[in-house]
Amino acid sequence: MRIAGQKAKLATCAAISLLLITGCGKPPQLGNSVEGLKASDALWTAIGTRNTTLLKASSDNIARLSASGDLTPEVTEYLQGLVRKAEGGDWDSARADLRKFIKGQRRGK
Predict the structure, then answer these.
(1) Structural domain contains residue 41
(2) Residues 32-41: contacts with CB within 8 Å, 24+ apart?
(3) pTM of the model
(4) What is the predicted pLDDT for the residue at 7?
């Protein structure tokens, strides 16, 4: 019984941590990153046209921007997650999630 209670506490802590990290469903913010905005736009084109060459170029650019500090780890993971969805053939879901990401951006944050 004691182990079950500890597992429940651990699961609750994990869920709360996940909500704190993800911002309760709000997408991570690009802030004032012009390059990040351009990268999201390029990803939108790649996903919208289902172009695997553009998708690969977008993924590489996102990685480059992340390495240079132009994208936060949260934005990088979110966008690369969309790349993985599209690579897996779930283009429509990737596009819908990218639309939410773009619409969820708040200038200067």
Answers:
(1) yes
(2) 32/107, 32/108, 33/65, 33/70, 33/71, 35/65, 35/70, 35/71, 36/65, 36/70, 36/71, 36/75, 39/65, 39/71, 39/79, 40/79, 40/98, 40/101, 40/102
(3) 0.75
(4) 59
